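Note to self: user wants both folds in one dump. Writing first protein now.
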Amino acid sequence: MAGVEQTSLLPEDRAAQLAAQAAQRPQPGHWDELRGRLSSEAERDDMRLAPLWQGFWESTGVAGFQSLQARAARVARRVQEDGASYNVYAGNGDGTDGELGSASHVWPLELLPLLVGAREWRRIAAGLRQRAALLNAVLADVYAADGGRLLREGLLPASLVLAHPQYLRPLQGCRPPGGVHLHVVGFDLARGPDGLGWVVAQRTQAPSGLGYMLENRLLIAEQFPEAFRELAVQRLGGAFRVLLQGLMRLAQGCCAAGETPRIALLTPGPRNETYFEQAFLARYLGIALVEGGDLTVRDNRVYLKTLRGLERVHGLLRRVDDEFLDPLELRADSALGVPGLVQALRAQQVVVANAPGSGWLESPGLAAFWPGVAKALLGEDLLLPASGGWWCGEASAWARCRERLQDFVVAPTFPTSETTRSFTPFLAAELDDAARMLLAARIDADPAAHTLKDRVRPSKQPLWRDGRLEPRAAVLRVFALSDGAGGWTVLPGGLTRIAQQRGSFDALLTMQAGCASVDTWVLAESAQQVDRTTLLPPPLKPEELARAHRSVSSRAAENLFWLGRYTERAENSLRLARHCLETLAASRRGYGSSEASLRMLQRLARQHGLIAGGAEPLGAGAFEAQLLAQLGDAQQGSSVAFNLQQLARCAEALRERLSPAHWQLLRQLGPAFAERLRGSAGDLPSALAATDQDLAALTGAQTDRMTRDDGWRLLSVGRQIERLHFLSDVLQQGLAEQLPQDDDGFALLLALFDSTITYRAQFPGRRELAPLLQLLVMDDNNPRALAWVARTLRERLLKLARQEADWARSVLAPLPDPDRWRLAELTGSDGQALPALTQLLQQCGSQALQLSTAIGRRYFAHVAAPERRVWQ
């Protein structure tokens, strides 16, 4: 939003001349940001640039202008490297019901920044500080225990406020800590044809954009370092510090004696469309990123569940929408919130930013009432102009506007009204006469659900496209941040959304509608006035590095644990399915596979979910048919496809802990397996073997490319639990069928243990029980020997629970200790398995699952084991 003054180009201003020559003019009637004036047909040949843009091109220089294409390519590459994304879902738009395969779009960042002069910014900042204070005062009034004066005196229509689904009755009479309802308010601004910035919308519930704005700044400032420095662009760190200090100040009032305030960012999770920016913002602010499942409320206090126990949380910067925040008092089916959070807020034991119940302020139907409310509560006129809006629920307003319906944008008053659930704002002028008559009749039927808005024609920002500067409509989101003590700071910058296509309808300048984004540079009067505050941490000292510890939340820990279990389970089910098919094929060709082998494989397939349950044995044909039918059915629990799908779901929740290669491998496993099944053309074992190779690569990533912290130990513990359970069952079933006594059965056991080559190398030519059990049960060097698995499981759990060793030893006590196993006691002198071996295998399998339950209670749910009492 460059200033309105123009200047003539000097002959030496070659970069500015090149820019002016390469720039298309916007259609008449729109403000031209590049030239700093209203575009008109009469001035089509006028090449003068706005002063700010001339200064930008002079700082960049001719070489800088000529390298714009290369700079744009660097920005695109950096966005890819950072993993910056914006998710688009086919669900209801909030990411709560999007499918796993929903589109993840690369963050669309354009090269050239929007420029805002110092004088223009002072006017904007003053107006937004006033509006933010007004909105906070409105919430305090409406949610006051006595109902406040605004509704009582009719300054706001009760039917517009109380009927809004985001007006929350459970919050009536609730005063948040410090009386601060709003901590972050987003205002969407568009420069109209008069050259002034107009407020076109406000975001008060959980405004998005702060993290993306930081990403934009980091990437674009490094592309134009000379211009950034010479134009004295304001930094962002000082305003973010105000926000963080304000939250800490209010959270201090929630602390018990000796406690240090702890703030966390509450996210809906990785399926939310703006998850990347939430994670980015949390890292920048130095606060934990948590989901609802990470938190629990005990005695009206909020706690974070970690591997080290419950840790108090005093403040939440939340990105979860109001209705999902607390399933006890708001939306009962929400899995995103924290049960008891509203009561903790009532008890003033937690700061929630923004406080729930503020979403109704975003309704466009309120636009016409703000001037009167400002007079009543602040005794002031509003400083910034705003686009007009008329709520059709007021009969007089609808009657005045009905005959000129074509002049307005039609928008929904309420976000979840049954009448307006599926429509987005649209321009009535684009309808023909018959369609406008139908629209008027629809509004007549439910006027309160509709609002008419003046159309604002936003200014045109230059966008670099293949050697040209093309004008595109732009809307700027600016953020007002509370200091926690009644003051407001307007962040000197913003998230600018820009249309990627010419002629885009201004009411649909949203990221979901396919807009791009540009950085926003707010200029200071001089370099001395630039606030150089930063929230980037200072360099760590050696002694601090020695104490550095990465905490692992219970949710991340649980997903790592199950990532390990599902990885092992997928490998086991895939190997079992492959050997079932190969054995069935060999039997069909008359290769002599034993009936005992087929019985054992069928029993294992049934117990591990590869075929349907049932006691009756199946014939070979029916067994194969069921196996093939369920192999790729992702809805069938424990099928190969299901296990691969669950791997990807666990990975979604662990995105921040996984390398890009690890992440991509996990996401591609399921689709690749499905594609191989479709193209197997009768060679299904080969298709299964290819997926087995993918899983081997995944195992390598988990073994060699993950930090050996407590989270990794849980992943490893999960794998060993699953392996111990499966292999114990395999050997127990094989012994019951006396498989070691025939060549086919002997080979099958080795194959299911993935130990065939090792056995051949150690015991060539032998088919004896003792060496088989030595390798599959006792061998400390075989990672699939039961002793190795049990010992590794014990060691890693003891290291994980190093601060609670007594608990670890108690839950490990029932698990057979491999140090006490003796091969001679497991096999008789005649080489036959003894009952002691069968008992050992039963204990290993059952105790592995019991151990999983104990780990879940201790580290994930943080509840004690249920008491068992015998009633007399």
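First done. Writing the second protein, which came from a different request thread.
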Amino acid sequence: MNERKPILTIDRLVAAFDTESGWVRAVDGVSLALKAGSILGLVGESGCGKSVTALSIMRLLPRPAGVIESGSIRLNGTDLVRLPAEKMQRIRGGRISMIFQEPMTALNPVHRIGRQLLEVFEMHRPELGGDNRFAAAVNLMQRVGIPEARERMAAYPHQISGGMRQRVMIAMALAGKPDVLIADEPTTALDVTIQAQILELILDLQKETGMAVILITHDLGVIARICEDVAVMYAGQIVESAPVRALFNDPRHPYTQGLLAAMPRLTSAAKQPLPIIQGTVPALDRLPPGCRFQNRCPHVMDRCKKRSPEPVQVDDTHWSRCFLLEHHDGIDTQ
């Protein structure tokens, strides 16, 4: 059994947005634990609340529309939710860093790459002098696989490729030597070859530095390849959480089962359509009563339409939010 303690613990996090329909909870009661030195995968379809969870951890929800209503986010015991803004600013980019989905919007288009990278060193590595900062920045650019790194420091974001911009984002995220790295769809819009390179880079750097990583993705193949644990998110809630092998070998939630069934496999029949999960993720301002997956679930029961299921333990490290687990334990679910 892995005895590593969690470095980041999220407990019953609720994040909401002020919309034309009123306050809408994009993250509703999320609990997660990230073990030190591990990679946790957060998976689910678009609109499930994965990125809002990440922005909540970083305290970067757009204000005033987005707020953390309740819950805690503890980094080595320190609750980030209640931390004053100036202290959170020192932690953000230092002890916790984030690789954003789209580097072209995350990088400032009117500043050179070198200036943006050096700003991270200035804020979070004050022990380095000017010349040392520049040398450290060039070295970091080389480590993330950017050719002619010294020359690239003078380039603007639009002058380099999407893959190179993503590597710059990774370099910026690593510059402060974070304890926790959040990678939000880090390979979105990149070609397959570059995707593989970026994932290998994150995995290599994680092993080298010992940092813990939260990898947000909709790709279960990526999760299986590099993650140790995985949490499946649907309509603002975690519906299943387990070690990767347990989740792939014994998925308990119908949503997880549907995601796994939709994965292409070498053993799949040629030219046959893959199974799909019928329907779409419900709008957060129009959630159904009871279980949020009920309108798409092939096993829906009467009680699913009346109240939301509570998490049920499968074993010490695996739980799922589904009435089917009670049924498997011999409890009448009708």
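Dump finished. Worth passing along: The two ends are 37 Å apart (CA to CA).
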